[in-house]
Design a protein that fits this description.
By secondary structure, the protein is of the alpha/beta class. It has seven helices and five strands. The protein has a five-stranded parallel beta sheet with strand order 2-3-1-4-5, with helices on both faces.
């Protein structure tokens, strides 16, 4: 295992800019021996499948977060790993603690509800994602990040390049 490995776990609600950020990082640092990974690359089952297999969507998210963290630590031998996904921050902390792995950073990408609405409905044409549950999730993650002293990057009315610059400054790239 690469002892210099640092894992950046980028989280946030739908439409805040997580994927955009990782895509920008990948483009900017394409010549670096770094890895850029999306949680959703494993495929996301229906809510019914999550309930049937794990008891609840929350239990599915926790189990899959732990699986991903195990893989990132054990199977990815890169200096820097940028991983994005919508995940409860406590699950992230517990997953890394389980492996006694301390070289990680949690970064919450955040935006206003109005910006989220615009992105999900108009930019991404996914109005079904802009729900009360998603707005509550946005608020929950924001509160949780503050409580756990995680890095928060505000991304309302920002270009992808501005988001990238904010991230680079925040994590010292």
């Amino acid at each position: 295992m690469n002892s210099d490995k640092t894992i950046y776990f980028i989280t946030g609600a739908s439409g805040v800019g997580k994927t955009t950020l990782v895509d920008q990082l990948k483009k900017r640092y394409k010549n670096k021996p770094w890895s850029f990974i999306h949680f959703d690359s494993i495929g996301i089952p229906s809510l019914e499948e999550m309930k049937m297999s794990f008891g609840s969507p929350t239990a599915w998210q926790k189990a899959k977060t732990f699986e991903w963290i195990s893989r990132l630590i054990q199977d990815y031998d890169y200096e820097k790993i940028f991983f994005e996904g919508q995940v409860d921050l406590q699950f992230i902390r517990e997953g890394f603690a389980h492996h006694n792995f301390e070289k990680y950073r949690i970064v919450l990408v955040d935006c206003s509800e109005e910006e989220m609405e615009h992105r999900l409905i108009h930019s991404r044409a996914q109005p079904e994602l802009f729900t009360e549950a998603m707005k509550n999730w946005l608020q929950y993650l924001r509160r949780q990040a503050k409580e756990l002293h995680a890095q928060i990057i505000a991304n309302s009315n920002q270009s992808p390049e501005e988001l990238l610059k904010k991230f680079e400054i925040a994590v010292g790239l």
